[in-house]
Amino acid sequence: MLNSNIPAGPLDSKWEDYKGHVKLVNPANKRSLEVIIIGTGLAGASAAASLGELGYKVKAFCFQDSPRRAHSIAAQGGINAAKNYQNDGDSVFRLFYDTIKGGDYRAREANVHRLAEVSANIIDQCVAQGVPFAREYGGLLSNRSFGGTQVQRTFYAAGQTGQQLLIGAYQALERQVALGNVEMYTRHEMLDVVVIDGKARGIIARNLITGELERHFGHAVLLCSGGYGNVFYLSTNAMGSNVTAAWKAHKKGAYFGNPCFTQIHPTCIPVTGDHQSKLTLMSESLRNDGRIWVPKQKNDPRKPNEIPEEERDYYLERRYPAFGNLVPRDVASRAAKERCDAGYGVGSSRQAVYLDYASAIERYGKIECRKHSIENPSPEEIRKHGMDVVKEKYGNLFDMYNKITGEDPYTTPMRIYPAVHYTMGGLWVDYELMTTVPGLYALGEANFSDHGANRLGASALMQGLADGYFVIPYTIGNYLAGEIRTAIIPTSHPAFEAAEKAVADRISQLKHINGTQSPESFHKRLGKIMWDKCGMARNEAGLKEAIEEIRALKAEFWRDVRVTGEIGEFNPELDKAGRVADFIELGELMCMDALQRRESCGGHFREEMQTEDGEAKRDDEHFAFVAAWEYKGDGWDLHKENLEFEVAHPTQRSYK
Amino acid sequence: MEHYTMNLTLKVWRQKNKKDKGGFETYSVSDISSEMSFLEMFDVLNERLVKEGRDPIAFDHDCREGICGMCSMYINGRPHGPWEGTTTCQLHMRAFKDGDTIVVEPWRANAFPVVKDLVVDRSSFDRIIQAGGYISVNTGNAVDANALPIEKDKADTAFAAAACIGCGACVAACKNSSALLFVSAKVSHLALLPQGAPERKTRVTAMVAQMDKEGFGSCTSTGACEAVCPKEISIQNIARLNTEYGIAGLTNDK
Predict the structure, then answer these.
(1) Is the pTM above the cut of 0.90?
(2) What's the gap in Å between the CA of B91 and the closest CA on chain A?
(3) Residues B38 and B142 in one domain
(4) ipTM greater than 0.95
């Protein structure tokens, strides 16, 4: 039976009460407790720094050459916090409510409320670290809007907020490395969790430079290894982002929660050809000021600037007047797909819509001209001043668009199309962020807990840092307080030996198949199956086909993959082969999860379940639960955690 | 944009490991689309090498959005290639034309030893940050974020310095392999903000000392670093570091 360990009492005092009664570990005992952290993105770096500060002995691992490279660095638009600095009606409750509703009532109330409560502390902490957020002329912090909300609660640093937050956490982490509280292992990949007497007690890691396997003991293991969007091959994730650490944990007993909940982001640069290796996001913040449209005429051959205003269909403003261009991501993505499928798409592939800045440039230009007391400004003057404002807010994003497409977004509307971006699903965790394996935790995107079936923009950074800075430092004590008498287990223990042997055998097997096809080619084929049949729209027949195709692909992989190079050297092909093998297994589980969830909710759209006007149709009576999958070797068992909504009562989600 | 395809000759540095002497190998690639990124062109070549049972070329890369700082190719004598303000991963093939020969090498500096082929070890940068590239504030110590107003101009200048991605192009471009642009970006970021003031003097002294210890060369103000920086970090940061360093050395009080 799944126990989410949610504290009793009213929703808004659960976390305070919990903190007041949770077990503590005294400073002397902390020094002899060892914690292993996998991944150094926002969740991992902030957890490693905070636990190091508390006095725990921390070992942190990342597969990149430096902890500063983790993919959190690429987050663009911002981070939410219920500060209400704009006096526009924000509050902890509003942030909680928006997040639950945005997630289409498939997240756990208690976790989300805690997230909203600690959101304000995150901003304080980051500013104290020297994170240079955008400011107003008065010297105070600036905010902007994001999708699915009607207040301005998003803090940002141009279009590179993730970079600045990660550098803040990275610096805090490196400070602990310097002080000797954290030992950092770069270019290391976790390849198994070691479980002894039912508790997580360490890991097997591979040194990616030498190929050697290493054993590391820990009283607890924290997985902060990010999401699994790369199962689709093409996504906005970094090339190295992978599910391997989470998947190994899953196979060692950690249940996987809601694997089918994936987020397709509406504003990405469209695919240009078969050579494409990844997709690039254009921040949701662009929907603050940009307007999305397609021509009213099907297959319109004209250039965008030749199409007059009255022949443009601003379809989001038309369909959702209350939220307009700022509807949540799942809604915006489906609406783009609907227009393109109906023949209104633009660009050579017809799989794109326009994101247009002309009216924002004019609006800002007029304001600036007034500020500078320019009377009767010419259209050129207005444009010039408007472009300066847009450049300051989004310059790096516009430059990136220009480099990739060769087009100038200041003068020509950008072409955009939805792409895989984030995974709401992940390892199932309880209120304390512990998985179903005692002593094994999952933080940030690696867990399933806060975003339900759809994540709101600027909430991933918030969750990663909330988990690492303000949740795990409290909740881990509750477990480790019971471990102060556990002596360090020598890594010669048979469980370590067996785990290392299993890892070595698998690597050797991969290397010696000596087939004909590259790991990359299998990854591409998996991605195509997933995108076509488990992507933006899913149906029963397609999912059943996908499961069969993935099983066949798996068999072919283990028969015919070719891994060049040697085991005992720096060998990215071997790293990749192991990750692709795990993605293939995950793909099957995602399709099974999507198949069992016979409802549409958030990013999970089952074509059989939609309203007359094409919106997602939830089925609260049968599906108000978290699907937690237990690995059984030859298949999976489904466990259900029922979701109780005591405060935010589920309604049909409407942004009209 | 008009699309076109091209055939190219690549001369790529191959080095099996740190101890290997290494040397150039020549490859030809055909039908490369002008819409590809530079790294996607390498993907195509590597797929072919794997198919032929040969060892693919190792290179560092991750986000492919120009922000993680992992990619690091020295292309035709210039870190990150011909485009200004651009990382290797954001360089696209329309920068080249049919028939071109492209020479690709790793970053070359004593403090960045080669791991394999085009991959180098930049952990020296992490150790410079460990020496003092932070503000000593534990989680939970902070006051309300708006309790400390910061002039917009200063915040913007600090942000421009903090935009450094730690790729090491500045070192690769410098004839002395100096890391001063990297170090000065961090010193400036933190010195410009009031939060960074208490540790201003110890920070700059410790970071410069660590830089020297790692074996980076001295700065002779050539300006090559600024010219190739993909994030266009200004050389004015080096001037600011020199001022900070001077003040720290001239006054005894910490």
Answers:
(1) yes
(2) 7
(3) no
(4) yes
